[in-house]
Design goal:
Blueprint: H1 2-11, H2 15-147, H3 153-173
Helix pairs in contact: 2-3
Pfam families: ATP-synt_B
Subcellular location: Cell membrane; Endomembrane system
Protein name: ATP synthase subunit b
Amino acid sequence: MSSTFLLGAANGVQWGDTIFYLVLFIVLMALLKHFAWGPVSEMMEKRADKISDDLDSAESARKKAEDLAAQRQSALKDSHFEASKIIERAKKNGEQQKATIVSDAQEKAQTLKVNAKEDISRERQDALDSVKNDVAELSIEIASKIIRKDLNANDQKALIDSYIEGLGKQNEAK
């Protein structure tokens, strides 16, 4: 029997070894599942969750960056608008100040002109009065030399007035 068993074993399938290897394979698979597959799959799941969270964070950061860029663009447009308003106000203020300065200068020039005319008129009147007095003295001297007598005050006044009227008519003719 032993030779038949050995012959059968050499020619056929050895069920004892096969079952042993099968049980050993199943135990090995169970050990792999418990000690290797669980931690590996847990690690892969954690890695997938981390990658998903990182993608969500990146998307959130991208949206925040886009919002911030939009806010900056809006602020830039607002600042350009404000700057143009400030420039416009400055131009208006400059024009108003220019108009005020020109108006004041014209008023001062007009006042100076009027004052100058008044001064000229006053100086002219003073000059005429001075000439009148000088002419009166000269005419008295001339008259006294011509007449060889002293004139009384009324004669003297009449002589001066007629002489001055003659001078006024000569000045008007010029």
